[in-house]
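Our preliminary data section would be incomplete without showing what the modeling component actually yields. Below, a chain of 678 amino acids is followed by its predicted structure, encoded as tokens that our downstream tools consume directly.
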Amino acid sequence: MRLEAWSKAAASLGHAARLRPDHAPSHGYEATAHARLGRLGLAEAAARRAIEAAPERAAGHADLARILLAGGGAEAALAAADRALELDATLAAAQAGAGRALTALDRPAEAVEALLRALQAAPATGTSAAEGDLGPSALRAALADAHGRLCPAEEPPPLTAESAADPPTVLLLAGLQAWKRGHWEEAEARLAAGGSRAPEDPSFDFLRVEPLLRLGRTEEAADSARRVAARGGTLPLLPGAPAHARLETRRTGSWRAADFGPRAEHYARAVTALLPARPRAGAPPPDLLFVLDEDYGELTTVMLLLLGQDLAGRAVLAMPARLAARNRAALGGRVREYDDLGELRGLIDEIEPTLVLLCSAYLLGVHGLCDNAGLEQLVGDLERRGSSWGTTDPFLGLLGEGKPTDLLSIDLPEGSPAELLQRRRADEALLGRHFTHSAHLCRGAPHVYPAPDPEDRNPLDRAPSGAATGAAASAPRLSFSNPALQFEAPGDGSGRPFWLFILSRTDLDTQLLHEGEGFTDLVTNRMLDAVAAGRRALLLGPEELLQAAATRSPAREDFEFLPFCSFGDLAALVLAAECAFYWNAVSHSILLRLWNGLPVVLFDRGHLLRNLPALSARITRRTYQGVEPPYADHRAPLHLEAVTEWAAAARADASRRVPKLRAAPTPQAMIERLLGSP
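Predicted structure:
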């Protein structure tokens, strides 16, 4: 049922429950509707009202157990399930709730027993609002989760006669036991046999993927995963350590570029060699201040400017703590943190810079670092002290040439509920006011870009295209070309290739809005395509996606998940990947690949072009130098032949693109122009 339908159902059921407060099932159904919407507080309250109306009704306690477990309360959920079993020992929903809670509490042997009893009882029951969790496929997935927590040497509880009468369950348990012991042929055979007995159950195909990969049957593994994606349904976790444990070493940063092969190690050394040494005692004080917001793209723009440049020794990067967490060592440790406008102004007073580049003045307010009044105050301070200042501009001059309120159009899926449409109107009005003010404030300030516009007569100083008169016409557009961004490729024997899949927090939100929760399976299936092609697959993205993808991933072999890392590590991985797949055409790290003739494939335009479609032509001109990148459908399989063709096309495109990128001035020349600006 769609989100809007569940919302209406919750309202109708709540009304029905208020008309008959003593009718326990009405409260139970309302609890289910709220739970489906993720409103766990309201769901728990409704479930408790159902119990109050009928304390001896076992299904009410089972419903409460399910809701408590969804909220992370495994102990309380087990207590509620146990109470339901006291009232009705045969209730499948209670056995299932107890089994799932026991799994969460790391009591797998007891969980297996409870879930086997649930499978036994499920066909004869139907009294709980949790009934959707009681199909054989969902229960087998939960059983696989519990069994996967048993250590390989630990035998599962013996099957009862009733359980043994269900061949798919018997085959599932036998396959899992072989899986955990590394007996891949036996595991695959048992799971394949189970799947043939229960073709509607996706767990068997899902669990076959890893054994098939281990046996070198990569195409069969990919086909198995595609059947899972097409079928949908509840899936188990892979046996062994849970996803959060497997991600811990990546999250804490205890990994090296060498973990991703000699090619990544080569580029990591090359990027590190371009960073300035740490400041020496007695060195001249810095006089260039780059003020970053929380946007990783703006950090990338600044690093593309400073890599390998002497002027990097004169620079300080000011950034919020969230960005600094993984980038304190950037630029030889020339990083200072700030949390608000007051701290930033204090930092400016301390450094007394001759130049301040806001990265970006258009986004500081969007990311909550200062409001429009604060930005105006900051600019006023800089002008009074005589510091030169400018801004990077992710909108490529567009906001200074028209009314932002006319340009913005937040992209929503067709059939979006009225509540979402109303929120869009409010957000468009809010952003329109913000960008109108920031565009007015920046109308005469130099705007900096990491690539030239080929239509500019002089990329060093160009009034916005189409602006002939007025204040906007006085705002110079400054672009730069950093020759250090072209790297020497490693030689032969550079290790096994990998494909990189990368997207930001904002683009994840965009994809979830349009694709729903199924987006995670699209990502893991494209990663599996890489593995089927004999490559490793690396997903770099926000923690939420990594957790979901690692949990939903049908295999561990050659699947890598990495949270956002330092710029140096990111640059090494971006350069080392055989092919890089993005969900955002405006991702700034793309420029590293374009400079080096490496293939970039887009799955989506990204949030910026979706919501500001007039920007598209400018992105093609500046970022891609008039050469459109290839797009691929993230629902369709990826094949090595296509990647080989994309790589050849990227090399050919580079012969046209790189000379145009080189047409811009050097970073040093651009900074001198900024310092000479009024």
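DSSP finds 31 helices and twelve strands in the chain. The two ends are 60 Å apart (CA to CA). Preliminary results of this kind motivate Aim 1 of the renewal.
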